[in-house]
Write a structure and sequence with these properties.
The chain is α/β, with parallel strands linked by helices. The chain has 18 helices and 29 strands.
């Protein structure tokens, strides 16, 4: 468990008692604030907070603070602002921010987030148990409480199904070792719903291990029918963040699942689900971000962004705050430590001018001042990653050159019916459609009038690698080619575009920079974001990554392309556990049937 959630310390508690009684001075007093009581739904006006060490020693009327201060006591004048508990994100993949845990924590804390539950299955897919260890070690360098879940599905599907080539295994012995590490709180989202429904012993044993260690088990169950959902919950998987409509949300909520309402950068479900928390007193509901990119973190915020959108959509402000504080704390069984400003709890506090629009001005975590009036006052340590973790693109140049981007068919010239992946930017779901496409010289051609272009996946973790190609519709990409090493969850190189030469150039450049995102048009690199750490994250300062991302947005916007939607949508096209159709290095995948299907439709 995280070092802040240690066993009961009698010496610490006696000190808190003495401060609460005025026998010892507080380390920090936050005076003149309006305290948001998330436990009651009320607001305590003209209040003050006493902090000693990492924890709150008392909450009292502002007029009484003088007897708790001495010469070294830091007094922060709250200026009549609102004091909120530090925000909690119950489900996030830090890798999706493109920042490492330390870089991410700097920006998350700035926006009032003090605790996150991270499932690092992205880095574990690439680096295995070592990737998990790196996350544990890096996470301990930051005041953001990064609680980790052991990935349940690495790879995301059972290798015996032959749906993709996993770069790294995560055998049960590694799984058990990870479960025993510090900061581990649970079992990460169980995506392999087919194995759950089939009672696969490998998955059930992982759930049992989590229960045996008093840990939570999180789920991933999109679009299951009533019978399937009953079976999935019966396995002991008690949360889900994949509800995309109100009916699905209700189905899960009344079956006793913790309903995680997701509002990320590309997958935005809050607006379609919010009526559930506006019209019911949902006890098992909480906000999560899942995947949020660096630009949204900088410009819109983290959990404060989700709270503010909920308020804009008509949710009562205190209720919105509860969904990012006390509710997730209860889910994590940590309400004795976080999620509420009260005696004995950790000093995780956010000061905001308004309640109707949260603006995280001053942030404390674990009783320590991190940001004051939006200025960073805490020094963050760096973490030195091993060289091999920064060099994970191993495919040979000659193989890149030999890739047949256009799917080859037995027809030399003419029209054929093809299985096509239809995407909808802003949604994690895909549609399996059949379209007529033209064949020239034995290869399927793109179809611009229907926005059907090439898409493919190249295994990147060995010199001699496998690959497959197919067709994708509605991506909205108008340039020659794009390639990226963010391709959930095995994170091979996924590529798309109109020009064979531009696509290959993008892949070659990906290898040169050892991972990231590269966009090419007319034989030249338009923009790139290097991501050397496992091909997923940058080890540069957050501001550097932000500027690279903004540059790419700008360059693509000049050409009529919305980069954020394309990149996030493309990153999930290779994940063979979300309906209906995906592509991996093995080919097109019919998700519901769990089978590889040909490009040419039968």
């Amino acid at each position: 468990m995280n070092l802040y959630f240690t066993k009961y310390d009698p010496d610490e508690r006696v000190t808190l008692i003495r401060v609460a009684r005025g026998l010892e001075p507080a380390d920090i007093i936050i005076s003149n604030i309006n305290l948001v009581e998330v436990n009651t739904g009320n607001i305590l006006e003209n209040a003050a907070i006493l902090i000693k060490g990492t924890r709150v020693a008392g909450v009292l009327k502002n007029s009484d603070v003088d007897r708790y201060r001495r010469g070294k006591t830091l007094v922060i004048n709250g200026a009549g602002f609102y004091a909120l508990p530090g925000f909690i994100d119950s489900h996030i993949h830090i890798e999706s921010s493109m920042l490492d845990p330390i870089g991410f924590s700097k920006i998350a804390l700035k926006h009032g987030t003090t605790t996150v539950v991270a499932d690092p299955h992205e880095v574990v897919n690439v680096l295995g148990l070592e990737g998990f260890k790196l996350f544990v070690e890096a996470s301990r360098q930051t005041p953001l409480k990064i609680l980790l879940e052991v990935p349940s599905c690495v790879p995301p599907t059972d290798p015996s199904m032959g749906l993709e080539t996993p770069p790294n295994g995560f055998p049960i012995e590694d799984f058990i070792l990870a479960m025993k590490m510090n900061q581990v709180i649970g079992l990460g989202e169980v995506m392999d719903f087919l194995s759950v429904l089939n009672g696969n012993s490998k998955v059930i044993d992982k759930i049992k291990t989590a229960y045996d260690n008093n840990m939570i088990v999180d789920g991933h169950a999109p679009l299951l029918n009533s019978e399937e959902l009953n079976a999935y919950v019966s396995a002991g998987i008690l949360s889900d963040h994949e509800s995309t409509n109100l009916v699905e949300a209700y189905e899960k909520a009344w079956r006793g699942m913790y309903l995680f309402i997701r509002e990320g950068s590309a997958w935005r479900d809050l607006e379609s689900i919010i009526e559930l928390v506006k019209k019911t007193d949902c006890k098992l509901c909480a906000f999560v971000s899942d995947d949020v990119n660096v630009v949204d973190l900088f410009e819109k915020g983290h959990m404060d962004r989700v709270i503010n959108k909920a308020i804009e959509l008509g949710l009562d402000p205190v209720r919105a705050i509860q969904l990012a504080t006390i509710n997730p704390a209860i889910r994590l069984h940590l309400e004795d430590h976080i999620g509420i400003i009260a005696p004995g709890r950790l000093g995780d506090i956010v000061l905001s001018r308004k309640l109707e629009k949260i603006d995280s001005l001053t942030v404390l975590a674990n009783g320590e001042l991190i940001y004051y009036n939006k200025e960073l006052v805490k020094t963050f340590n760096k973490y030195n990653y091993p060289t091999h973790a920064l060099n994970t693109v191993k495919v040979e140049d000659k193989l890149i050159e030999a890739i047949e981007v256009g799917p080859r068919v037995q027809v030399e010239e003419g029209w054929v019916k093809a299985n096509v992946i239809r995407v909808q930017p802003g949604s994690a779901l895909t549609k399996h459609i059949v379209e007529e496409v033209y064949v020239s010289h034995g290869k399927i051609q793109p179809l611009p009038e229907k926005d059907i272009m090439y898409v493919g996946v190249l295994y990147r973790h060995k010199p001699n690698a496998s690959y497959s190609v197919g067709l994708i519709q509605n991506l909205g990409f108008k340039l020659g080619g794009v390639a990226q090493t963010i391709a959930h969850d095995t994170h091979n190189i996924i590529f798309a575009g109109w020009s064979v030469n531009d696509i290959k150039l993008a892949i070659k450049r990906i290898k040169e920079i050892q991972g990231g995102i590269v966009v090419v048009d007319k034989g030249g690199v338009i923009a790139e974001i290097p991501l050397k750490l496992a091909g997923l994250m940058s080890i540069e300062e957050p501001e550097v990554v932000y500027e690279s991302y903004k540059h790419m947005i700008s360059k693509l916007s000049e050409r009529g392309v919305v980069f954020e939607s394309i990149f996030m949508t493309l990153s999930l096209v290779s994940l063979p556990v979300i309906p209906e159709i995906r592509i991996t290095d093995k080919g097109l995948i019919d998700v519901k049937r769990g089978t590889v299907i040909p490009v040419v439709a039968k």
